[in-house]
Amino acid sequence: MVGPMSVFRSKAFLLAASSSVLLAGAGLAQEAHEGGGESHSAFPPFDPATFGSTLFWLLITFVTLYWLMSRVALPRVGGIIEHRNAAIATDLEKADVMQKKAEEAGNAYTAALAKAKANAVAIGQQAKDAASAAATERRKAVEADVATKIATAEQQIAAMKASAMTNVSTIATEAAAAIVERLTGVAPSEADVRKAVSDTLAG
Amino acid sequence: MAEAQAIDPIHQFQIYPLTEKMSLFGVDISFTNSALFMVISLALIAFVMVYGTRTRSLVPGRLQSLAEIFYEFVADTVTSTTGKEGLRFLPLVFSLFMFVLICNFLGLIPGTFTVTSQVIVTFAFAMLVILTVLLYGIARHGSHFFGLFVPSGVPAALLPLIIPIEVISFISRPISLSMRLFANMLAGHIALKVFAGFIVMLIAAGGWVALTPLPMIMIVALTALEFLVAALQAFVFAILTCIYLNDALHPGH
Question: Of A86, A127, A200, B123, which is most buried by a Cβ count within 10 Å?
């Protein structure tokens, strides 16, 4: 990029220089011809007649510029940049602290969550234990109740059975007495009949 | 006269008074077109650097961004060439850089005057830099400053040869510093005017009008190049100033 550019530049410069000599000559000749009064013999950028005024105004403008820059602009811009860098640093620091806080909060949350979970499990377990204990108790009570009822029922059955058996022996005795009386025509004594029946029933 | 102006590439460097003739102790100090553009440059720089930063915003606007870019650019240049202590010269380097830069760019606007195309201006700047280097160097390092002319590690037998070379190279600094900027601006502006003059001449020549786009294309290309040169020369001036100031801060090779 630099190579072709500088070639181009030097070509342009040569062209400019050679052309300018011709054109300057023409221009100056014409101006001298028309202007007459003023002398423009010197090449303007080298004309010492203008040096005084140029230097004077350069001094004024440059001193003003230097004063403005060194007293106002540069301290201000430097201050702005410094202030910004400080603000960025403080903000980053703050963000760091905040992030740590957030992390702590996150950790605390996780811990609280774990604790709550453990609590929940414990409470659940307790409830389960209590419920199962209650259920066992009730089952036992019901079982006891049922056992009592069964026992009562069995007693009743036994009583009924006994009473029924008593009835059976009474009927059997009467029937046996009746059968013996019909067959033999003699009424057997009731005690004999009862004895015979109970012997038979007993096996 | 008008035609002469159009084809005379030197006329743009003509300095003429804009007001009544003024003089101070017999020296002509009339307010000229050159002075006008110095004042315009000053006003532009002040506008960006002072007006643009008036709000001191944490989040900068356009003008303040521009001011900060200039500041950081020059401050980086100064610190990278002279180190942190070179920042005491930041106002000088900054003022020089901005003044040269704005004058160079202003000169690219057709019809304006290029302050930096005057050898006396660039020479004054160069002398300012060299005198600053000399005075600060001597004030800070005393006679040790002249060690600048005696490179270390050179055999004693070669010193009679080396010292004059170093002295000459030091003395030629203001000349090269001023000539580089002045010649670049002068040549560029002459080249632009010459090609513009070709167009006028081709039109005047009648049948050659068809060729006028050629110098026009050259003008466009040259204008782009001149923008590059305007910025580059301001930067070169600033960085050379820094390098010379570095000698004052740290003499001895």
Answer: B123
